Amino acid sequence: MKVTVVGAGAVGASCAEYIAIKNFASEVVLVDIKEGFAEGKAMDLMQTASLNGFDTKITGATNDYSKTAGSDIAVITSGIPRKPGMTREELIGINAGIVKSVSESLVKHSPDVILIVVSNPMDTMTYLAHKVTGLPKNRIIGMGGALDSARFKYRLAEALEAPISDVDGMVIGGHSDKGMVPLTRLATRNSVPASEFLSEERLDEVLQATKVGGATLTGLLGTSAWYAPGAAVSGLVQAIACDQKKIFPCSTLLDGEYGLSDLCIGVPVVLGRNGIEKIVEINLSDAEKAAMQASAEGVKATNALI
Ligand SMILES: NC(=O)c1ccc[n+]([C@@H]2O[C@H](COP(=O)([O-])OP(=O)(O)OC[C@H]3O[C@@H](n4cnc5c(N)ncnc54)[C@H](O)[C@@H]3O)[C@@H](O)[C@H]2O)c1
């Protein structure tokens, strides 16, 4: 199993590290445009192999896509991250050009690749990857919902005063502060609805904290976060590589599902060796449907900028 990660910055390196530590891939190739940067990150990570006990071989390349040839999965994290006060949508001018050229180069050298798009604004970048590569829809996956759901579970566990392993919850919709739709109605603590333990007001606080989860960290760190994004990407890569058939909310091209078409947005999907193997349609309440509709309008407005 060969995995390429484009962008050896904060998220790319974190994702490569988690993939290696989980020890399911034979090879990870890091690519960056900055001379020597990916090679340096790869060497540093390889020097953790004997300490962390993994056999994955990590190499780096400066903008040389011949080194990525024959990749089964490629992750696109190249681009600029947001600074405090910025929205993800404001990154589009620079990141659209980067995601376009990177997607084309990846597919040229690995025609059978499954792409995972991380660069923001992620739903629009995933849509752009479809437009420029023409790959079948099961082979282009946007990562946002897996991270937003992890942040949702963190906030739920905090409110419930419960261990995170006792908590389940999912965020669908667009990967933006306004567009996220945390499904508080379906959140549970060990199969019991979270609403049995928390007031409507407290659940709404959890929802609001989840929606600004990325912005909160950007304010604290001065740039966007990387550990949870890297871990979320590694979870998707593992589900595909190990054919796990796990459900994650991912951004995918919709064709009538959830009453939406011609956009990529977060919905639950089954991930396995063929990428997105199924889009899971769950029954939403009228309020959730309205939130999804509003989220889709936001994503479409950003798509109109590419
Ligand atoms: N989808 C999500 O949930 C999520 C979460 C966190 C971050 N992000 C996004 O991921 C992206 C990366 O964030 P980061 O914090 O790792 O940024 P970063 O600046 O640390 O790393 C980005 C890397 O991309 C490289 N790069 C730029 N242009 C390139 C090109 N044409 N080819 C190859 N490499 C190139 C840069 O040299 C840099 O090393 C940002 O757009 C950020 O908004 C998305």
From TrEMBL:
Keywords: NAD, Oxidoreductase, Tricarboxylic acid cycle
GO MF assignments: L-lactate dehydrogenase (NAD+) activity; L-malate dehydrogenase (NAD+) activity
Stored CDD domains: LDH-like_MDH
GO aspect biological process, one term: lactate metabolic process
Gene3D superfamilies on file: Lactate dehydrogenase/glycoside hydrolase, family 4, C-terminal, NAD(P)-binding Rossmann-like Domain
Catalytic activity: (S)-malate + NAD(+) = oxaloacetate + NADH + H(+)
Domain Lactate/malate dehydrogenase N-terminal stretches: 1-142
Top EC group: oxidoreductase
SUPFAM superfamilies: LDH C-terminal domain-like (SSF56327), NAD(P)-binding Rossmann-fold domains (SSF51735)
Pfam families for this protein: Ldh_1_C (PF02866), Ldh_1_N (PF00056)
Binding of NAD(+), residues: 7-12, 32, 95, 118-120
The UniProt record lists the keyword Ribonucleoprotein: no
EC number of this enzyme: 1.1.1.37
Positions that bind substrate: 82, 88, 120, 151
Protein family: Belongs to the LDH/MDH superfamily. MDH type 3 family.
Annotated function: Catalyzes the reversible oxidation of malate to oxaloacetate.
Protein name per Swiss-Prot or TrEMBL: Malate dehydrogenase
UniProt lineage: Bacteria, Pseudomonadati, Bacteroidota, Flavobacteriia, Flavobacteriales
